[in-house]
Design goal:
There is one protein chain. With about 325 residues, the protein is mostly helical. It has a single domain, classed as Glycerol uptake facilitator protein (Up-down Bundle), CATH 1.20.1080.10. About 70% of the residues lie in helices and about 5% in strands. The chain contains 13 helices and two strands. A two-stranded antiparallel sheet has the order 1-2. A hairpin with a 2-residue loop joins β1 and β2. The longest helix is centred in the last third of the chain and has 31 residues. The protein is globular, with a radius of gyration of 22 Å. It holds the Pfam family Form_Nir_trans. InterPro entries: Aquaporin-like, For/NO2_transpt, For/NO2_transpt_CS. It is a multi-pass membrane protein. It is found in: Membrane. Its main location: membrane.
Length: about 325
């Protein structure tokens, strides 16, 4: 499992890749990610909305568990197969900005194009795969789909903003853990649990809301397009804070901390922290050096470059 500066290098690899993609490819990947969100959202609504209303009222946690169980598959599909997710990119590209690896204009352009692509993919996927087939036209599904849309549009702006910060913090934590994991099974588990947390807590995720609110509008929820954009205005900003600052800045500071305390400079905690970072940097640069290793007590000289490299994960 990757950690420290090695993990940061993997994130930077993804950041530079995203920043260098052509705009049309970025848009295509944004639409693709929106379709994955729509398919996973439809599955989650089918699981949560199928619970009878009287049971939902007695056990309100059950619909949340239904949503939280299946919605994380959107992130599985995006990370393991392909796609560009606006909320995940706020973290990855922020790390690129802090390390001066991706120019700010490319970051802004990527986020705008991916956001538009995500929105189109979510609406198109919901219309084609949930509304036209009539998956939710009968109760208890109809009532639940409408309820979800209305519940996301009746909060105040500040409430939505605060709910959005931990939502994307957890999503970006899932992305980070997915990059750090080396095996497919590890990636699946790492991506699943943080998303479960934010769904059960009722936090607000801008791309998820693109699907849930719009599918509710298609099925006649008592809200409006204006309220949907009101929700987006607060949630997008909160998601950006969670991804670029809470996750992005803290990840950068953990690996590049410079103490402001004069008595900590050059000794004590500062020295230990610097040593930890230097040790990680040496491990990262190991493929270019020759290292002595022993096997069953027998010393053997090998080139570390001949060992399998840790693969980075395109997100």
């Amino acid at each position: 499992m990757l950690s420290g500066l090695i993990l940061e290098d993997a994130v930077l690899h993804n950041a530079t890749k995203k920043g260098s993609n052509p705009i049309d490819k970025t848009f295509f990947l944004g639409v693709l990610a929106g379709l994955w969100v729509a398919v996973s959202g439809t599955t989650a609504l089918s699981a949560a909305g199928g619970i009878p209303v009287d049971i939902q009222q007695r056990w309100p946690i059950l619909p949340k568990i239904g949503l939280a169980t299946f919605f994380p598959f959107a992130l599985h599909l995006i990370v393991l197969y392909g796609g560009e997710l606006f909320t995940g990119n706020t973290f990855i590209l922020a790390v690129g900005a802090y390390n001066r690896s991706v120019p700010l204009p490319r970051i802004l352009l990527n986020l705008i194009v991916v956001y538009i692509g995500n929105f189109i993919g979510c609406v198109l996927g919901g219309y084609l795969f949930a509304f036209i087939p009539g998956l939710f036209e009968a109760d208890p599904y109809l009532t639940y789909v409408r309820y979800v849309a209305v519940s996301k549009t009746h909060h105040g702006w500040g409430n939505l903003f605060l709910r959005a910060i931990p939502a994307n913090t957890l999503v970006c934590m899932a992305v980070t853990m997915g990059i750090a994991s080396r095996e497919a099974a590890g990636k699946i588990m790492a991506l699943w649990f943080p998303v479960v947390l934010f769904v059960i807590c009722g936090y607000e995720h801008s791309v998820a809301n693109m699907y849930f609110i719009n599918i509710g509008l298609m099925y006649g929820a008592e809200t409006s397009v204006g309220r949907m954009w009101f929700n987006q205005s607060a949630v997008v900003l909160g998601n950006f804070v969670g991804g670029a600052i809470v996750m992005g800045a803290t990840e950068h500071l953990m690996n590049h901390w410079k103490t402001v305390l004069p008595w900590e400079r050059g000794h004590g905690v500062g020295t230990l922290a610097a040593h930890d970072i230097e040790s990680t940097r040496n491990a990262r640069d190991a493929p270019t050096r020759k290292r002595r290793v022993s096997y069953k007590g027998e010393p053997e000289s090998v080139h570390v470059s001949t060992l399998p490299r840790r693969a980075t994960l395109p997100v």
